[in-house]
Amino acid sequence: MRIGVLLPTFEVGADAAFEFARRADDAGLDGVFAYDHLWPMGSPTRPSLAPFAVLAAIVARHEQLVVGPLVARVGLTGTSHLVEQFLTLEALALRRVLAALGAGDKLSAPENLAYDVVPRGADERRALMEATAIALSPVMPVWFGGGAAATNELARRLGVTINLWNATPDRVRELSATGPVSWAGPVPHDLSATLDALCDAGATWAVLSPQVDVEQLGEWRRTQPETRFH
Length: 230
Prior knowledge:
Layout: E1 2-6, H1 15-26, E2 31-34, H2 51-61, E3 66-69, E4 72-73, H3 79-92, E5 99-102, H4 109-114, H5 122-136, E6 142-145, H6 149-158, E7 161-165, H7 169-176, E8 181-185, H8 191-201, E9 203-208, H9 214-222
Parallel strand pairs: 1-2, 1-9, 2-3, 4-5, 5-6, 6-7, 7-8, 8-9
Helix pairs in contact: 1-2, 2-3, 3-5, 5-6, 7-8
């Protein structure tokens, strides 16, 4: 199981994100990810940095870190534009980009409404995810933000990873029986025990929110057998 962190991108300017990425690299973590929101959920007056620009700057600074949005929401831009954003990032960070895609949900609907993003039904958004995945799968790993049964079924049909937000290790184990599963979520009360459980359940990645103690996360990684990271 590889270890990553979400960057603090709900900030004015990218200095905090760059410093967090430096600490993650120094701690020996595997990757950094960026939210794709027009504002932090429920806080429309706060800033939110564009993920691809921040990640492009980070790959120029850190040659080992895997990067990706978590998750890039289809429909915010045209599919061809979203694909080109991923391909441009891939050109800067060869074989270090994860195309994590999401359909969005009612929690992000106010952002779409405020910016006049065309409302789409769930099936149409899944169709956009499928088209994007088909375009990117030959070039980079693809994740689907999972949860809905129809989205999980599509992920399995396409052979892409299901990314679960704050799921239990039992749920990770259940879905891992049918294909790859990654996990992302807030910092658990017992970080080490949760990481152990997720790893044993078959998670390919664990990605923690920006509130995590990066050094503690790095210490957990250093104490694991290297076989757990392949």
